Amino acid sequence: xxxxxxxxxxxxxxxxxxxxxxxxxxxxxxxxxxxxxxxxxxxxxxxxxxxxxxxxxxxxxxxxxxxxxxxxxxxxxxxxxxxxxxxxxxxxxxxxxxxxxxxxxxxxxxxxxxxxxxxxxxxxxxxxxxxxxxxxxxxxxxxxxxxxxxxxxxxxxxxxxxxxxxxxxxxxxxxxxxxxxxxxxxxxxxxxxxxxxxxxxxxxxxxxxxxxxxxxxxxxxxxxxxxxxxxxxxxxxxxxxxxxxxxxxxxxxxxxxxxxxxxxxxxxxxxxxxxxxxxxxxxxxxxxxxxxxxxxxxxxxxxxxxxxxxxxxxxxxxxxxxxxxxxxxxxxxxxxxxxxxxxxxxxxxxxxxxxxxxxxxxxxxxxxxxxxxxxxxxxxxxxxxxxxxxxxxxxxxxxxxxxxxxxxxxxxxxxxxxxxxxxxxxxxxxxxxxxxxxxxxxxxxxxxxxxxxxxxxxxxxxxxxxxxxxxxxxxxxxxxxxxx
Length: 484
Ligand SMILES: Cc1cc2nc3c(=O)[nH]c(=O)nc-3n(C[C@H](O)[C@H](O)[C@H](O)COP(=O)(O)OP(=O)(O)OC[C@H]3O[C@@H](n4cnc5c(N)ncnc54)[C@H](O)[C@@H]3O)c2cc1C
Hints:
The protein is 23% helix and 21% strand. It is of the alpha+beta class.
């Protein structure tokens, strides 16, 4: 077993971990699930977190901050969702309330402050706001405005919601207009801010469907932004055409974007300062007498009082051997990263056209165009011609100013998706000592750190602070819904 985290500094007391001891001893057993967390000889409880995506990394961070001896195990699977995720944090546009993502967005300010205190000041999070492009139908647009405004009014983290015209939308996100003279040979820099001249070429091709069936929750759902009721609700037509965006949009000032890779690395690095130990390898959960006894990592035993299963789309393989059947499936997402040479994209907002696709930027002239939502692909970790065509065509249909951008990278990730679209977060009757933290689907970068805090509380035998019954890992809806 090799560590993979980084420094891996141990705090006093973390030495002498019972790696290889083959299970917890009688002193530490029995405290779990309902009973108070019992301290080990070193004054700390021992917990293994399986999976170092955003959920597992956040869980581990919360655990070590609470003083628990913690080991984070990761198998470095290709297609980790956190590494591919777009990073939109905007849970206020959905038709339905989404308590966990909403709580997740509200959790971020506290988390960012805590990480800054722990030496992780720049984690790739920026409050850039979002533009929800409104449907052309006035009645539908009015309904969307009313719904989003009401949702935002109930949550101070959503910030201000204002209606903006096309000129303002293009000023905020210049690529919504065609780049002047944008051809392969003359793609000049796009200025930061300020409207751009129109008259560029038509984007090639229109929106294309990806393989697999439409996701639960509506075809207009965007990663991190739920079902928006924007353009797609009026037929999913390409909103811009060759002349660029000409409609109205809602600007949601509290929306943000996050670099999932940087956040995850920051959580682990901060946790290591508290003594987190990281181990690379594939974990198997060990049980005896109806409770967890730890894990085996590539055959080597690692004893623990509690195990948090945060293995993303791979959770069924982790949990099935201990009798816990969770019908989570991998939902493949292909997402393209473009570069607009010379453009200062630092403060461009997230763009939500309501088609289920979206655009967002990072600081290095990078524009991210996402994403496919494909089911039935298994763990097939390839960029496909159709997937890439879909995301690029959708992006260009909304933002013709991207026509001359450089394609720098395409990422593929597997969203852990439950059949009813709800997370799986909680304990199970047996084995005792097991916490399931999974199924965050398209909203895991939004809800993941909060879900991690809840999972950590459960692993410590503490009150999680919210009603978890809708997220019961063994709820009827999740067991009886057919999955592909
Ligand atoms: C294209 C795309 C775009 C997205 N955009 C957004 C967005 O804009 N906003 C948003 O909120 N969310 C978004 N998401 C969703 C978000 O990325 C996921 O919900 C979230 O990252 C899931 O995190 P996780 O920790 O549960 O799983 P993962 O990140 O997949 O991590 C699971 C980890 O478990 C490890 N593992 C598995 N089995 C084992 C084992 N037996 N032993 C040890 N380790 C194991 C794997 O190696 C992996 O590292 C997007 C997802 C994709 C794919």
